[in-house]
Design goal:
- The complex is a heterodimer of chains A (257) and B (401).
- The longest helix of chain A has 15 residues, at 185-199.
- In chain A, the strands form two sheets. In chain A, strands 6-7-8-3-9-10 form a six-stranded mixed β-sheet, with helices on both faces. In chain A, strands 2-1-4-5 form a four-stranded antiparallel β-sheet, covered by helices on one side.
- Chain A has helices at 56-63, 85-92, 110-120, 126-139, 155-167, 185-199, 212-218, 236-241, 246-256; strands at 18-27, 30-40, 45-50, 71-76, 79-80, 95-98, 173-177, 204-208, 221-226, 229-234.
- With 257 residues, chain A is α/β, with parallel strands linked by helices.
- Chain B has 401 residues and is an all-alpha fold.
- Chain B contains 17 helices and no strands.
- Chain B has helices spanning 15-22, 27-54, 58-62, 64-69, 77-98, 100-120, 133-156, 160-179, 194-220, 225-239, 243-257, 266-291, 295-303, 308-323, 325-338, 350-358, 367-396.
- Chain B is globular.
- The chains are: A alpha/beta (257), B mainly alpha (401).
- The interface between A and B is medium-sized, with 28 and 22 residues.
């Protein structure tokens, strides 16, 4: 209905590719998101961090409607997320998502995982999709694993396939939900390397992660979540060197030792 | 000193050593071995002696036509042979193109046909079944057909899609050939019987109840309340009623409920009853498989922009159906055996025709032979199904490990 309507009453400068305003969400009676306001500009890399249970994963999952928000509004590239499934489909086609537990399709090879959506959603020919998929697998550094099944790959390789799978739909936005938390330490870097390369391409990225080295090097902005609210937001230099809030300081002290 | 890689210690065991370890490791185990061994030998001598010496297998040989096709007219038997030949060729082609699972099927069907042909040919033991030239030639021709098609498939390499379409076409073709259509004179289903009827009932039941069951399983988990309630009600009601009851209702009540001029064939009614019954069980099996799919799979598919139909078709069902292969094959094996129940509504499938044969005065006293033959026929069919399913699990299991 209002698929192309821009967010109303917002000055041009504030009109981001993702606009969340006063977003609330409850799980039963548990108030998990308590008025989140966040605007992400096209091409920005935003890192979201905070203790577990602070609502950060829930929040990024509301952006492609894996979770439904119950109050407030979310616009993605000018499209408001409502119950209208056409809007949801339109938004999802612009967003790629990478999960903590990879969620690769175990019955498909790496290559088939990557080509599934382009063939079934975008209606590309199999040849075209496979060619694009091979290019993506080369980009994430594992073209030689193309015909293996997920169970035959290491965790780091699986996550890189998952990134390629999300990129195959040519999204404008990539959401990362703790992409390295389930990985063995020696595999974290190979995934971060791919994410760093990706950040350099100018794609919009929203990452929930505790990899502070990555955040410091790549993020334009960071947002600290605590108890369902954004307590503090700013460029990495400010967050690391001069955090304003006591809770931010305490959390950073804990994870940076 | 560097550590060299060493060969694993030898685990080869001589047969004698194996027996000492596994059969005679202690006095108690030696006694058990002796006892069970003795029992087995006693059984083998008695049963074998009966089968070779006393049993009057003529009752099977003389009535072989009835056992195989019931009262299907001899002049039209060529249609069944043709049908069988088409299936043999399709099996051979599939074995060449699809490999593994279908290859097992091809090997077992051709071996089975060869074996049957050998039983018929006079042997030093005397002929078990009187030689019928057409039967021997038909069986040998079919076995040869499987392998000729396999070789042809290897050489020509027809696309998989054609073969799929070919298999789909065998369904109407079978119907046309068996029951008659157009220039082919009709053979009324009341004349179908024996193994032919058993296989037809089971095949139709399996082919139709599977998709119906999958739909019911999806319906039971649907977000639409009406669909969910109807599917659940269907499944619970059907599972609460014995198959015999459903067959009786299909046979007796359906004609009463339908207008007079509207007649559904008796065999078709039985097929419908079996299908509807089996679908409820397939649905519950499949639902079990669906529940085992993690939420993350749905989320990943949705995040990629797949709708719920595409998510089910390409992500969820392939995994769910794979995981319930053993349960479903078990179900289909019992469906095959349950087809014997149609006897009670007057259809003469393998068991029914056996009882009819026993009612003839000349087969007096041959009960054991007839029932052993029927049991063996069912065993061969069921064992083939279960072997095919193990194969299927192994080939399809690759991704899910």
């Amino acid at each position: 209905m209002n698929a192309e309507r821009p967010a109303p009453d917002v000055p041009e400068a504030e009109r981001g590719i993702i606009v969340a305003r006063d977003v609330h969400k409850w799980f039963g009676s548990l108030h998990v998101l308590r008025g989140i306001d966040l605007t992400v500009q096209a091409g920005e890399v935003v890192v979201i961090f905070g203790a577990s249970g602070s609502g950060k994963s829930t929040f990024i999952r509301t952006i492609n409607r894996l979770e439904e928000h119950q109050q407030g509004e979310i616009f993605v590239d000018g499209i408001e997320l409502t119950n209208d499934i056409r809007n949801i489909a339109a938004v999802r086609s612009e967003i790629g998502m990478v999960f903590q537990s990879f969620n690769l399709f175990p019955h498909l090879t790496a290559l088939q995982n990557v080509t599934l959506a382009p063939v079934r959603v975008r209606r590309w020919s199999r040849d075209r999709a496979e060619q694009a998929a091979m290019e993506l697998l080369i980009r994430v550094g594992i073209p030689e694993q193309a015909h293996k099944y997920p169970a035959q790959l290491s965790g780091g390789q699986q996550q890189r396939v998952a990134i390629a799978r999300a990129l195959a739909m040519q999204p404008k936005i990539m959401l990362f939900d703790e992409p390295t938390s389930a990985l063995d330490p020696e595999m974290i870097n190979e995934v971060l390397e791919v994410m760093r390369e990706l950040a350099g391409t100018g794609i919009t990225m929203l990452c929930v992660t505790h990899e502070m080295g990555f955040a410091r090097a790549v993020a334009n902005r960071m947002a600290f979540f605590d108890h369902g609210q954004i307590v503090e937001e700013g460029p990495p230099a400010q967050i690391f060197e001069a955090p304003e809030h006591e809770r931010t300081k305490r959390f950073l002290a804990q994870i940076l030792h | 000193m560097s550590i060299e890689t060493m060969a694993p210690p030898s685990t080869a065991v001589t047969p004698l050593e194996w027996m000492r370890r596994n059969l005679f490791s202690s006095i108690a185990s030696s006694l058990t071995t002796g006892l069970i061994g003795g029992l087995l030998i006693w059984l083998a001598v008695n049963v074998g002696g009966w089968a070779i010496g006393e049993a009057r297998w003529e009752v099977v040989g003389n009535n072989l036509r009835l056992f195989l096709v019931g009262q299907y007219p001899a002049t039209e038997a060529w249609r069944l042979w043709l049908n069988l030949a088409v299936l043999s060729v399709m099996t051979g082609l599939s074995a060449a193109v699809f490999g593994s699972t279908t290859r097992t099927l091809a090997v077992s069907t051709s071996a089975l046909q060869l074996l049957l042909a050998l039983l018929i040919v006079p042997s030093p033991l005397g002929t078990l079944i009187p030689p019928t030239t057409s039967l021997v030639l038909g069986l040998l021709g079919n076995a040869a057909g499987v392998w000729a098609a396999f070789v042809a498939g290897r050489l020509l390499g027809p696309p998989r899609r054609w073969l799929m379409i070919g298999w789909l076409l065998t369904i109407p073709l079978t119907f046309v050939l068996v029951s008659g259509f157009g220039p082919l004179p009709e053979v009324r289903s009341t004349l179908w019987g024996g193994l032919l009827l058993t296989v037809l009932l089971a095949a139709v039941g399996i082919v139709l109840s599977f998709p119906l069951g999958v739909l019911l399983a999806l319906g039971r988990r649907s977000g639409l309340p009406a669909v969910r309630v109807l599917s659940t009600a269907y499944i619970e009601i059907i599972r609460g009623v014995p198959l015999v009851t459903i067959l009786f209702m299909a046979d007796i009540m359906l004609p009463l409920l339908l207008p007079g001029e509207f007649r559904i064939d008796r065999v078709a009614r039985a097929m419908g009853g079996i299908t509807l019954f089996s679908a409820a069980y397939v649905a519950e099996n499949v639902r079990g498989g669906l529940q085992a799919i993690p939420m993350g799979q749905y989320e990943a598919a949705h995040a990629l922009g797949l709708g719920s139909l595409a998510t089910n078709l390409f992500v969820v069902l392939p995994q769910a159906l794979r995981s319930v292969i053993p349960a479903n094959v078990g179900l289909f094996i019992s469906l095959l055996k349950d087809t014997t129940l149609v006897t009670i509504v007057g259809l003469l499938e393998l068991l029914g025709i056996g009882r009819a044969i026993l009612a003839q005065p000349q087969s007096l006293g041959a009960h054991l032979e007839v029932y052993v033959f029927i049991a063996a026929a069912f065993f061969v069919l069921c064992y083939a199904m279960s072997q095919a399913s193990y194969r299927l699990e192994r080939t399809m299991g690759l991704g899910s490990r």
